[in-house]
């Protein structure tokens, strides 16, 4: 089954700015896909459209064969989204509250949610900051909390927007190791070209016109003419 499919997708923001244009893309279940492009090429917009957070202005997006109609409730049990800025995600009084929030919304029994919280707090080495407010955390700590919140629900499809941006080397290594071990479908937008061969098998290159310029294997990262033309390097 196709995990994610976009057919002639365009997204235009309310102020008239084009986010992405005429995107056709097919991602099979279990594929690991990296989206690259210049600043402003539409990487974040494409992540938000493909994940169902934004409804396309034109075209169709399907997730696990189901057409996305702007109602994220229908797909949220299968989809996880890691935002570029954790502050867009974190809003509860403490880290503990953050980890327990989504299970509560999904009506997961409290004892099961508590066990999930404890397990994932250890996995992501945030068990010592459970009582801290998120706004007092470092950038790397915020990122680990955000990823733990999403991954404790075991999504079949994981979208990540610049997961290694603004984190230290230790956190970057942890994120790469985690992404490499993730067994579901991965769609990751990143400027960090050096990490792509470690975590992805397919590369999508967006051009300066906010369209898909090329789709292929990681060998596209060695096509310097293509990357320069699209403003990637």
Q: What is the element layout, followed by pairings?
A:
Elements: E1 2-12, E2 18-28, E3 32-36, H1 43-50, E4 58-63, E5 66-67, E6 79-82, H2 95-105, H3 110-123, H4 139-151, E7 157-161, H5 169-181, E8 185-189, H6 196-199, E9 202-206, E10 212-216, H7 224-229
Parallel strand pairs: 3-8, 3-9, 6-7, 7-8
Antiparallel strand pairs: 1-2, 1-4, 4-5, 9-10
Helix pairs in contact: 2-3, 2-4, 3-4
Written description of the protein model:
There is one protein chain. With 233 residues, the chain is α/β, with parallel strands linked by helices. The protein contains seven helices and ten strands. Strands 6-7-8-3-9-10 form a six-stranded mixed beta sheet, sandwiched between helices. A four-stranded antiparallel beta sheet has the order 2-1-4-5, covered by helices on one side. A hairpin with a 5-residue loop joins strand 1 (2-12) and strand 2. The chain is globular, with a radius of gyration of 18 Å.
How large is the radius of gyration? 18 Å
Structural class: alpha/beta
Q: Cα distance, first to last residue?
A: 34 Å
Shape: globular
| Major β-sheet profile | 6 strands, mixed
Q: What is the succession of H and E elements?
A: EEEHEEEHHHEHEHEEH
- Percentage of residues assigned to helices: 25-40%
Number of alpha- plus pi-helical segments? 7
Mean pLDDT: 92
Beta fraction of the residues? Answer: 25-35%
- Poorly predicted tracts of residues: none
Strand order of the largest sheet: 6-7-8-3-9-10
Give the number of DSSP strands. Answer: 10
């Amino acid at each position: 089954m196709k995990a994610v499919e976009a057919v002639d997708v365009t997204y235009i923001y309310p102020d008239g700015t084009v986010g992405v244009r005429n995107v056709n893309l097919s991602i099979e279940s279990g594929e690991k896909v990296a989206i690259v492009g210049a600043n402003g090429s539409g990487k974040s917009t494409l992540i938000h459209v493909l994940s169902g957070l934004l409804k396309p202005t034109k075209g169709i997006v399907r997730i696990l064969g189901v057409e996305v109609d702007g109602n994220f409730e229908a797909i949220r049990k299968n989809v996880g989204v890691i935002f570029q800025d954790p502050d867009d995600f974190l809003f509860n009084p403490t880290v503990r509250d953050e980890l327990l929030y989504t299970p509560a919304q999904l009506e997961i029994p409290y004892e099961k949610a508590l066990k999930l919280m404890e397990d994932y707090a250890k996995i992501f080495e945030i068990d010592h900051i459970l009582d801290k407010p998120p706004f007092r955390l470092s950038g790397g700590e915020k990122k680990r909390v955000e990823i733990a919140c999403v991954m404790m629900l075991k999504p079949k499809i994981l979208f990540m927007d610049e997961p290694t941006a603004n984190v230290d080397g230790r956190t970057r290594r942890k994120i790469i190791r985690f992404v490499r071990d993730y067994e579901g479908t991965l769609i990751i937008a990143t400027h960090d070209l050096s990490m792509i061969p470690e975590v992805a098998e397919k590369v999508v290159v967006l051009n300066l016109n906010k369209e898909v310029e090329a789709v292929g294997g990681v060998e596209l990262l060695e096509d310097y003419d293509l990357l320069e033309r699209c403003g990637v390097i």
